[in-house]
Amino acid sequence: MTPVAPGAGAGVGQSPVSAQVARPAATTSILLVDDDEHSLRALRAVLEPLGQRMLSARSGEEALRRLLREEFAVILLDVRMPGLDGLQTASYINARARTRHVPIIFLTAHAEDVEQVFRAYAAGAVDYVVKPFDPDVLRSKVAVFVELQRERGERVREARARAEAEAIAGTLQRHLLPDRLPDVPALAMAARYRPSERLAQVGGDWYDAIELPGGGIGLVIGDVVGHGVHAATLMGELRAALRAYAVAQPSSPAAVAGSLNALVASTHSAQMVATMLYMVVSEDGAHVRFASAGHPPPLLMGADGETRFLEHRHDPPLGAEERIDFSEWEGELDAGSTVLLYTDGLVERRGEAIDVGLERLREALGTGPADLEQLCSHVLDRAIGAGDAQDDIALLAVRLAGVGAPGALELDLPAEPASVPVARHRVERWLAESGGGCDDVFAIKLAVSEVCANAVEHAYGPEPGHTFRVRAERTAGEVVIEVSDSGRWRPPRGSGRGLGLGMIEQLMDAVDVERASSGTTVRMSKAPNGDEQR
Amino acid sequence: MAMSSAEQPIPGVAETTALAEIERSEQEGVRVVAVVGEVDVSNVGALEGAAQGLSNEALGVVVDLSRATYIDSATIGVLFRLRRRLDRRGQVLRVICAPGSNAWRVLELTGFDRQMHPEEDRDAAIAAIHEAVPLNDGIALVNEQAREGEE
């Protein structure tokens, strides 16, 4: 092994390398190990221009401790130290697979040490410098290892980005589907699109959600006959036209379907081109109407878990006739109802009656998890079975605020630790029952729990009889939680006590602490469906 | 709280609280404490207790959160405390956690994951502790020398 760092200059005798070192974008860590405080300070000053994080250890033992916890780009290790000396320390570092690769530069003040250092190359060292060292040479040697570490990090990042790009490339179909679903207070939505296994075939399934004038929301799911670029292009046309008609006639799904059919019939010479179901949900999330152009029926699940298909007169598919007078299904749904819109790929399997597929879907919905995103995945897994998806599949699930959605939640609980899980579980149940859904139930649970723990631990002494109050409400598209107590706010104390407050600020959109002589109120809010949706 | 610690504790003891079952066992010189369910300020004492009473010969502790459905800042506080205590004794702490799980999220939110990368399964966690032993031997050696120096 040669005692020279690649590209770092051969040693002290060479002309100094320029101190103008480009500051790498990503920060790495450098470990400085020396028992002498002055040396450590000097090293820090010399390496400062590299812009990296520097950690000091005053002994070999402390260096080993740091290595247990953290990754370093390079270690600068003094040879002569009391306790574990530099060579012993290096041999321990080298005995461990996870730290063996970390480059070590030995620092030595004694010429006679150099011979020892050479032996230490077997112990994983890559270089040495003799004190007093030339700042430029030392800096450039260290810079090489910082750069190497940074490149390793970048390779990992690049590989990750490539994988993402490939996933995004997907099909033309995917680009025509909505990037995100609208964020409306009275209903929560989740959607899936799964292309056919035959990758060359671009499908014609689509879904969309449209915010309508007057506050309602239009939901559409459709299936263009055939495959290939033609089907995908036609799907794009239908989607754009439906959006226009939906906004022009916001209260009548039948009229929208009729207009779309007239357009299709006039441009595609009366051939059946697509099935489609178009549903309008009122602003309060309780009133539902839909028209169906030869499309499979929506599946409803009540808050009690009961499932049924919303059966309705079967009107013809788009394009089948020049003029179709669509009929409308109309009804009110209970709070917490879930409606599933889907394309026939979800229920049709080759050589099987469609009733079997419909029944399988009904059972899958009834046995799924409460969370809407997880529910979509569950339904997709159960309905497709062992990966034999012949056709493409689109799926749109909505949960409605519905009629009789519960209002605010109010709890008075004893100020003791056992109340914390009670508050958390009650808020979780209220979130599910109050309609409008929530993408990130865990965030709200965790924030509620942390604030309650704070009220219990800090606002009161150990005397019994105190209570605190939790209030949760959905208002103006937000979930608002208030936790109040009649004690005095105290700053967090002891190890780890600030952690909870730090988390709350990351979890919620807004957090406000109001301290008064009568007590402390923490008020926090979060948009329940604010995160990215598919 | 039902305690069954009157029996011989090894291998496999479980303490059940209303929210969680805390399992305790020994494996290859390592104490393994596993949480099944929720841990928060109301029952975190059971978790801390299960990680205590380690012999000097033990190599370290694995806290297995792969079946924990909920953890909070009090849980993280216990992990930080436990690590400091083990550090002082030349023993090692590893945490098992499933990427993307609720527990993982709390490790990220509190910055715990930046100080100690969670392991994906029990074998990896135990291997990591065994692997860290050479470093700990070094630390123990120095401690011993320091003690001798004092005497």
Keywords:
heterodimer; A: alpha+beta; 5-stranded parallel beta sheet; 5-stranded antiparallel beta sheet; 14 helices; 35% helix; 23% strand; disordered N terminus; B: 151 residues; alpha/beta; 6-stranded mixed beta sheet; 6 strands
Task: Please outline the helices and strands.
The complex is a heterodimer of chains A (534) and B (151).
Chain A: E1 29-33, H1 37-47, E2 53-57, H2 60-69, E3 74-78, H3 86-94, H4 97-100, E4 104-108, H5 113-120, E5 125-130, H6 135-169, H7 172-176, E6 187-194, E7 205-211, E8 217-224, H8 228-248, H9 253-267, E9 274-281, E10 287-293, E11 299-301, E12 307-309, E13 329-332, E14 338-342, H10 354-366, H11 372-384, E15 393-400, E16 409-414, H12 419-433, H13 441-458, E17 467-475, E18 478-485, H14 499-507, E19 510-516, E20 519-526
Parallel strand pairs in A: 1-2, 1-3, 3-4, 4-5
Antiparallel strand pairs in A: 6-15, 7-8, 8-9, 9-10, 10-13, 11-12, 11-14, 14-15, 16-17, 17-18, 18-20, 19-20
Helix pairs in contact in A: 2-3, 8-9, 10-11, 12-13, 13-14
Chain B: E1 13-16, E2 20-27, E3 30-38, H1 44-50, E4 60-64, E5 68-70, H2 73-88, E6 92-96, H3 102-109, H4 112-115, H5 122-150
Parallel strand pairs in B: 3-4, 3-5, 4-6
Antiparallel strand pairs in B: 1-2, 2-3
Principal-axis shape of chain B equals globular
Q: What's the SSE pattern of chain B?
A: EEEHEEHEHHH
State the separation between the terminal residues of chain A, measured CA to CA.
54 Å
User: What structural class should be given to the helix and strand makeup of chain A?
Assistant: alpha+beta
Binned, the helix content of chain A reads 25-40%
Largest sheet of chain A: 5 strands, parallel
Major protein interface: A-B, 43 and 38 residues
Main β-sheet of chain B: number of strands, strand sense, barrel status?
A: 6 strands, mixed
Structural class of chain B: alpha/beta
Counted beta strands of chain A: 20
Rg for CA atoms of chain A = 33 Å
Give me the count of strands of chain B.
Answer: 6
Note the beta-strand portion of chain B: 15-25%
Low-confidence stretches of chain B: 1-10
